[in-house]
Amino acid sequence: QADTPYYGHTLNLAAVGQENDYTMGVELLHPRLAYKPDHFFKTGTISRPFTMPLARARAFHLPWLQLKSGRDDFGNGYGGLL
After folding, report:
1. How far apart are CA 80 and CA 36, in angstroms?
2. C-alpha torsion 67→70→76→81, nearest 10
3. pLDDT of residue 78
């Protein structure tokens, strides 16, 4: 479980062989930042396509979120993911 409300997990789009091979990424959530052009030093483009079908990635992700949160109803429309 997260110790802070500013913590989340990204959907892993890397191809995996089995559901138990799935790993979640980490994302930090924060209030809006007022960026200025001088804040940027490098930009880029993600050009490689992801290999995991989105529906399959989501099917792996939700059970892992439910397990990590300790809530079987997480993501079922009760203040969770959906």
Report:
1. 33
2. -80
3. 55
